Sequence to fold (590 residues):
Amino acid sequence: MKKQSNLSRLLQIAGNHKYLTRASWVLSAVSALIALVPYYYIWLVMKEVLETAPAFSRARNLPHNGWMAVLFAVIAVLVYIAGLMCSHLGAFRIATNLRIQAMEHIVKLPLGLAERIGSGKLRKIVNESSAATETYLAHQLPDRAGAIATPCGLLVLLFVFDWRLGLLSLAPVLLGFLIMMTMTGSRMQQKMKEYQNALDDMSNEAVEYVRGIPVVKTFGQTIFSFKKFKGSIDRYKTWVIAYTKELRTPMMLYTAAINGVFAFLIAGGLLLTQKGVTPEFLLNLIFYIIITPIISVALTKIMFQSENAMIVDDALQRIGSVLNLDPLKETDHPQHPENGSVELQNVSFSYDGEKDVLKGVSLSIPAGRTVALVGPSGGGKTTLANLISRFFDPQSGVVKIGGVDVRSIPKEELMDTVAFVFQNSRLIKASILENVRMGKPDATREEILAALQNAQCDDIIEKLPNGVDTVIGTKGVYLSGGEQQRIAIARVMLKNAPVLILDEATAFADPDNETRVQAALSNLSRGKTVIMIAHRLSTVVGVDKIYVVKDGQIAESGSSRELLAQGGLFSRMWQNYQTSVRWKVAKEVQ
Ligand SMILES: Nc1ncnc2c1ncn2[C@@H]1O[C@H](COP(=O)(O)OP(=O)(O)OP(=O)(O)O)[C@@H](O)[C@H]1O
Fold:
């Protein structure tokens, strides 16, 4: 992506506010030119002082010229402030639009894809990339306009007074400019990208390391887990040192050239004055020595601009990588499911486009029935359940709810049709009431209280200081896994979706909570089509049908009685399970 196209893309995102951004460049350039005018008055002051010395009383124009210098300096600052106001308004609008655009796109992505990339990473890309454009547009671009205008204005000023000295002051500037070009080429752009990647890697590893501390401590793996984190720091260090070394010589030459203008002037001055010095030449020489440092300031600004432009380029590419992800296709001919039946017809699915995780799976669940998916770990149970609510679309085959292809059901309606109870259901930092209300935003307080009661939450609410209005996560208000799960069940109850997917719903419940969670689940499941992903075989005994999923296929299906009689995989899993239960009981008796 070219820098120019980045800028036009950003301006496109700005909509009508692009005029503000453009105005900011003009104002900043005008301000930079006005800021040169005081130097002209300073020259007049110096000239008058030299001409009238030592009888300064003859210097009548000194106060006037001095005040004019101040006046133009103030005007320059005011115009610059006006420019910054425009640039900030434009930049905020662009960053906001960019965030909205990205968020609107993320909402349209398959849920599974967003989950796979990671909400943290998505948030980081959207926030940091839009923030990078904000700084670029609000400060860096107007500064660049000013930094470009300054040398142009100076050029005029330099040649007006003494063209020979003007040329002398330009020589190092040209040299500096050439060195600068070598530091901002496409190779450096690539390096900047590597720098960003190394930085990203390091921060990801840091987060992983901190997240994993409890597990690491439990298993005494401190050295191993730190090794990964340290590896990313080492890679970053190696990269930064190599990058810095590469820049060392050009940067040194650039700084020397750009800050050594006065050396050129003095050397040139000596050459030009071999035949004698005129007061006017001396005046110009002193004036040039005073004014030329502005060039180095302007050029240094331009140089850092190229670095900033590279950062924005990278930011836009990152946000582009999100915007380019294929959204879930919305149907043009919406259809509505007739009931809560679920059907998979010859469904195959692969996460990476190579290995099929599901291979031609077919099953049919009549409305209101409860089925269980069991099988070895990694067999594809969760993937199968996720396809029902379009976490992803299968590469081949059809998933139907109520006789309708899920791709033909409007997204909102599909969300209302299928509900999940996950292993560790997430609650947000809000009151219990608000947490449950998420299941049905227009629910009345009475409806929420009824759902909480149905989900066996009475004992939780009784012990909380403000009952249902207690905010979870505030000081001293913590709920156990089983308690959180019951609140989450109340939320799903309120949603009242005809199809329910229970993913290991009771795996984390402690024994005291388990009976209540089970009761809450059986209230929740009443009259619904339930697909239960089960590990503990005790929970699947009473279901209408069991599907044994192995290697992405349905290996067996039937009632527990039928499957046990078959003496296949399920019956072996059952025997293992029984042995483990007996072993547990024996241990407890001991
Ligand atoms: N988001 C993902 N991206 C890539 N591969 C995945 C993803 N999720 C699961 N897989 C792979 O797909 C296969 C099936 O996984 P799935 O989670 O569906 O199995 P499962 O039967 O539910 O396993 P478990 O009982 O351990 O939860 C596994 O090989 C797994 O590594």
Notes: The radius of gyration is 36 Å. The chain has two domains: 3-323, 342-589. Residues 342-589 form a domain with the Rossmann fold fold (CATH 3.40.50.300).
